[in-house]
Amino acid sequence: MRSMLKLIIVLAMVLFALSACYPNPAPPGLTPIPTLAPGVELTPIGTVEAQVTVAPAAQVTAGADAALPAGNEGQGAAIFAKNCTPCHGQGGQGGGIGPKLVGDKFVQAGPDQNIYNVIANGRPGTAMPAWSKANPPLSDQQIYDLIAYVKSLQK
Ligand code: HEC
Predict the structure, then answer these.
(1) What is d(CA 15, CA 23) in angstroms, rounded to the nearest whole number?
(2) Mutate to test the pocket of ligand 1, among 108, 117, 128 (most ligand atoms within 8 A of CB)
(3) Ligand 1 lined by 94 (C-beta under 6 Å)
(4) What's the CATH number of domain 73-152, 1.10.760.10, 3.40.50.1390, 3.40.50.300, 1.10.1740.10?
(5) Which pLDDT does position 62 carry in this prediction?
(6) What tens digit of pLDDT does each residue of 68-101 get?
(7) Could you tell me which of 58, 61, 45, 65 has the C-alpha nearest to residue 113?
(8) Fewer CB within 10 Å: N-end or C-end of the chain?
């Protein structure tokens, strides 16, 4: 008789425990998912047409051998006398630590862009300075003038 009572108590506890779990109790703090009011119908949104954007034709970049703007030989001579003679000598005749620029193979070979690059950027690892970064720097036009001048030394 006593064991029967125990069994009933255990069964009651199990039922109580189950009733707490089923159906799952809503966790506190959750807002219920809103539902549509009866009679409200959803209208589908129209299809969105994709906008086709045509990329503009690639900009044509000037090739390395495109002609640089013209330089003024006379101006170039003056700039050369002021900045370049200590190393390349009067009139590019040599005598300093820089090579003679009269009859210079590099200048003769061209194109002007190569001469521009050497003057503007220098020759890293050598004494030839980067004149576009000098203090004060030479402008592009001044470098074009120098190109005209050093080319005139080849004639
Ligand atoms: C501080 C010395 C120095 C000064 C100043 C200098 N140069 Fe040079 N330059 C050199 C040296 C050194 C070289 C050779 C670098 C090498 O070994 O490739 C050179 C190379 C060049 C070359 C290439 C020649 C070749 O045959 O490769 C040109 C062109 C040139 N210089 C132009 C100029 C002009 C223009 C100026 C003035 C704006 C100038 N340099 C000022 C030292 C100088």
Answers:
(1) 13
(2) 128
(3) no
(4) 1.10.760.10
(5) 46
(6) 999 999 999 999 999 999 999 999 999 999 999 9
(7) 65
(8) N
